Amino acid sequence: MTDIEILTKYLFTDESSSIPSTGFLFNLITPSGDDEKGLGEGHTGYEIKFLSEKHTEKMRFDLNLGYSFIKEGVDHLFYSFGAEYRISQKIHLVSEIVGEADYRGKNEDPLFLLGGFQFHIKGLQIDTGMRFGLTKETPDYSLVVGITAPLN
User: Fold this and answer.
1) What are the beta bridge partners of residue 99?
2) For residue 37, how many other CB atoms are within 10 A of its CB?
3) Distance CA 50, CA 44 (A)
4) Over the stretch 13-34, which tens digit does the pLDDT of each residue have?
């Protein structure tokens, strides 16, 4: 078993024609996994994120800003901006830029650019894309694939 994460979200404002939806997410990361086997971090962590999202007829934009407080490690500021274009009801073009900064680290902060597609088929969401590293700290490229299935 890995570290267990308990999170909660709170929506401050619903989206309207002139303003995006906004909210916060709080995440508690418990040290329940065995860090010696690579199944956990070995310490408690906390994350807080500001979330914002805006839709238009064919586009969706989202902004995430957050900070992680790590009891025995280096705190991180993280951020992402994403966009999605609906080509059809079942195919969406997606892109995202994701970065992270730590104030005590001596390494270059990771920064990624992601581009890909979402396919919506029979209740499943299938994501595929390429992630490109924009700094020396990140891999030059990687393939990203995921499947999301609703539980309701």
Assistant:
1) 79, 111
2) 8
3) 21
4) 999 988 999 999 999 988 887 7
